[in-house]
Design brief:
163 residues; two-stranded antiparallel ribbon; 2% strand
């Protein structure tokens, strides 16, 4: 073989080796890039999982807060219902008492009428004024036989002093 053929064979072998090295380098670089891309995707997925977990905890806290607020609202509603029931009971009791007072008042008035029927002169001489004799059931400021109020002071039935 001649030296020029040998030279071409050596050049071809070197070219094949260089080409093999170039292919090997490109494959390795591609694998490295793919591995880096895979690692980046894993890191991004881990970050997304971490963010989602943090958001899940935040959502659970808001849910718990909303449930607590709902429970507090139900408690306040129950308290309001209890107070409304108590108010209704007190109103009923007041109505019952007013009815009894009305009955008692009617009984007293009936007895006074009966007494007036039996002794009509007593009412005229005593100077007392009955409740039904006053303007719409208001009590008179003083009895007809009481001394006149010279100081401008008055005392009510319970003994409280008014000026």
């Amino acid at each position: 073989m001649d030296s020029s053929t040998t030279l071409w064979i050596v050049i071809a072998v070197v070219a094949v080796i260089l080409l093999a090295l170039l292919v090997w380098f490109l494959v390795r670089r591609s694998r490295t890039a793919s591995a880096k891309r895979h690692e980046a995707e894993q890191a991004k997925a881990a970050q997304l999982r971490h963010d989602a977990e943090r958001e899940r905890i935040s959502v659970q806290e808001r849910e718990a807060s909303a449930e607590k607020l709902g429970a507090e609202a139900r408690l306040q509603q129950a308290e309001a219902d209890r107070k409304a029931a108590e108010a209704a009971r007190l109103q009923q009791e007041a109505q019952d008492r007013n009815a009894k007072v009305g009955e008692s008042r009617a009984d007293v008035e009936e007895r006074l009428r009966r007494a007036d029927e039996l002794d009509p002169e007593h009412r005229a001489t005593s100077g007392t004024v009955r409740i039904d004799d006053t303007d719409q059931g208001h009590r008179p400021e003083h009895r007809a036989d009481a001394p006149p109020d010279t100081h401008g002071d008055r005392t009510d039935r319970e003994g409280r002093h008014h000026t």
